[in-house]
Amino acid sequence: MALPTHILLAYGYLLLFGWVLVEQFGVPLPATPVLLAGGALSAQGQLRLPEALAFGVAACLVSDSTWFFVGRRYGQHVLNLLCRLSMEPTLCVNRTRKQFERQRTLTLLFGKFVPGVATLSPPVAGQTGMRFADFLALDAIGSVIWVGSFLWVGRIFGDALKRNPSLMQWVERFSGALLLFAILIFLAARIARRRILLRQLTQSRMEPAELWGQLQNGEAVYIVDLRHPLELVNDPYTLPGALRVAPDDLAKRAHEIPRDRDVILYCTCPNEETAAYTALKLHRLGVERVRPLRGGYHGWQQAGYPMDAIPPVNPPQPLVQLR
Question: Does some domain include residue 212?
Fold first, then answer.
């Protein structure tokens, strides 16, 4: 806490306001250390707790009101951007919107404690047509709870330091190790969530027989062929109605993918690796009903199901100069 405390002593409430404002706008610059430091300084009389609370809440309201009107004006485009930049990309737009619709009040009151939800909730509120007066009232209460909680924890720590100054020596001795441990835990949690989601996507693979049954029943299915064009040179066939798109290009065209039907991805790599990782990217962008095809193209081919012929993809021929 030495660095935030030193800066707060120099710049006071304006720094607290600016730091909270930047974090609430979505920049990964945690405001928690500054709020804790502000609470600790209030115990020593170097900052006043009511003023610190007021500046912190004001920063939240400025940021959240801005995102509210941006969400109302630009809708899904800004939500997709925020989802992509979020520190918690698994909290996709659709999931946040569903949570907001089910528990609007609780989301605005306590969402600031949940990474990702704190940034996405205000534009979702604007996009869903919530009255600004209702949003502002709930957001103000939620901001008071969030800012006040960390200021109060810092105040308790500051009071403990007044009673036992040697406590600061213990904190300084172990603060580096605690910070490193927290960073490692954060990274491990991110990797674990990624692996869990990838495993879930792999387990949700669609069987060729199931896909063929849907096609026969006339169900709406969005099929994407992720194979490289060179793979089509000697085997110019694709699944019925499949759209041929490169994996990197598909993520850029995520807004074109329908959300009301299964999105089936297939490739020719072992264990459908390309399809699984592409499904993970789409899931982060809010496409939840995405499933790799078990066995990929070869699994469908070996099952003997119909395929559509496509024009042969001929590799470019070298130019021959005429004499």
Answer: yes
